[in-house]
Design brief:
The chain is built from seven helices and four strands, in the order αββααββαααα. By secondary structure, the protein is mainly α. A hairpin with a 2-residue loop joins strand 3 and strand 4 (about 65).
């Protein structure tokens, strides 16, 4: 997705976009735009995604500064979709934080046990968020695989 975003909004950006294997996050300065490329395969805990700033990049939060984010680009094209995406991110974060710790114990038991119910709810929320993220990309003219 970062390659497509950099080509779409990078004002002639034609550089290589390698995976940020060693840094977890690679920032590309594209004129007035900064794009962050996250190596999500190495994230082991949900909190790490927030620590890296994935949600912040989507919502345009940079430390104490609230600036333009990907959601603002989507807002210009489809305000309902942008609002749905923001709500889905909040719902997914809330659902993940409802999973009892430790996770290896929460996953045990029948499907009706509180831990497994919470895990199923978090998975559903993340799947919905993923679907909306793919719709956001499509609204920006970017083709990605959400599977």
């Amino acid at each position: 997705m970062i390659s497509a975003l950099s080509r779409r909004f990078g004002a002639g950006f034609d550089g290589e976009v390698p995976s940020p294997t060693f840094t977890l996050v690679q920032t590309y300065e594209l004129g007035p735009l900064s794009l962050q490329h996250f190596d999500c395969y190495r994230i082991e805990r949900p909190e790490e995604a927030w620590e890296l700033g994935i949600e912040d990049a989507m919502l345009g939060r940079y430390g104490d500064t609230d600036g333009p984010g990907i959601d603002d680009l989507v807002q210009q094209v489809d305000s309902t979709l942008a609002n749905d995406m923001r709500a889905a991110m909040t719902a997914a974060r809330t659902a993940i934080l409802q999973i009892p710790v430790p996770f290896d114990q929460a996953i045990l038991g029948p499907d009706t046990s509180p831990g497994r119910v919470a895990i199923a709810a978090a998975i559903d929320a993340l799947n919905h968020q993923t679907d909306l993220l793919a719709q956001c990309a499509a609204a920006l003219g970017i083709s990605i695989s959400a599977t």
